Each structure stands twice: as C-alpha cells, then as structure tokens.
Amino acid sequence: MKEFKNVTIVKKANVYFDGKVTSRTVIFENGERKTLGIMLPGNYEFSTGDKEAMEILAGSLEVRLPGEDRFVTYKEGETFFVPANSKFSLKVNEASDYCCSYIKE
C-alpha cells in the first residue's frame, strides 16, 4: 500500500532518543493504528505492548528480536514482526524510513 486514505493523523510527533527516532501516528476509520517514522543511525532498544509489524520503506537496519542472540538485517521492502509485550534491539546504520502496524490479538 503506497498511501493511506480516510485517516486521522495525530499532529504531535513521537520523539525518542533525543530526536534520533521520530514518528507520526495514523489512525484508520476502523480504529487500526500505525506509525510512520524515520530512524537516524544509532543503537536503540524499544518495548512494545502490542504485536508489531515493522515495514522498512527505505534504508536498512539490524534487528535482534526477543529470544534471539544475533542481529538480522532488514532492508527496503522487508517486514519483521515483534511479539506483544516484549523488547527488541535495533542497529540503524543509515537513515531508515519505516511504517509500524500495531496488531491487536
């Protein structure tokens, strides 16, 4: 999907790690929520309550998912999934554009 239609966008940005990771929240008519953001180079750890699907729109990054002992590289056009109620680590080597979908189960 290249664009979203009939959505509400929250004006205030989500800002993490001193502005090195930012996103905007998009809310769909059915209540589904996504964020669109940019990550600048750095190492980050995130926590999530909901299951997440992280689609890489541009750039690349290395991800260590819960229970894994190694990082896996994801690049433009690829998606990885993060289990609910977990933490995951990122190594971002170049500016990366992403879309995060929050999955209610």
TrEMBL record:
Question: Which first-to-last residue range defines the signal peptide?
Answer: none
InterPro entries hit by this protein: Ppnp, RmlC-like_jellyroll, RmlC_Cupin_sf
Documented EC number(s): 2.4.2.1, 2.4.2.2
Q: Which UniProt keywords apply?
A: Glycosyltransferase, Transferase
TM annotation in the entry: none
Which Pfam families does the UniProt record give?
Ppnp
Q: Which GO terms describe its cellular component?
A: cytosol
Molecular function as annotated in GO: guanosine phosphorylase activity; purine-nucleoside phosphorylase activity; thymidine phosphorylase activity; uridine phosphorylase activity
Keyword Transferase appears in the UniProt entry: yes
Q: Which reaction does it catalyse?
A: thymidine + phosphate = 2-deoxy-alpha-D-ribose 1-phosphate + thymine; cytidine + phosphate = cytosine + alpha-D-ribose 1-phosphate; inosine + phosphate = alpha-D-ribose 1-phosphate + hypoxanthine; xanthosine + phosphate = alpha-D-ribose 1-phosphate + xanthine
Q: Which CDD domains match?
A: cupin_PpnP-like
Described by its record, this protein's role is as follows: Catalyzes the phosphorolysis of diverse nucleosides, yielding D-ribose 1-phosphate and the respective free bases. Can use uridine, adenosine, guanosine, cytidine, thymidine, inosine and xanthosine as substrates. Also catalyzes the reverse reactions.
Please give the family membership noted in the entry: Belongs to the nucleoside phosphorylase PpnP family.
Q: State the protein's name.
A: Pyrimidine/purine nucleoside phosphorylase
Q: State the organism of origin.
A: Clostridium saccharobutylicum DSM 13864
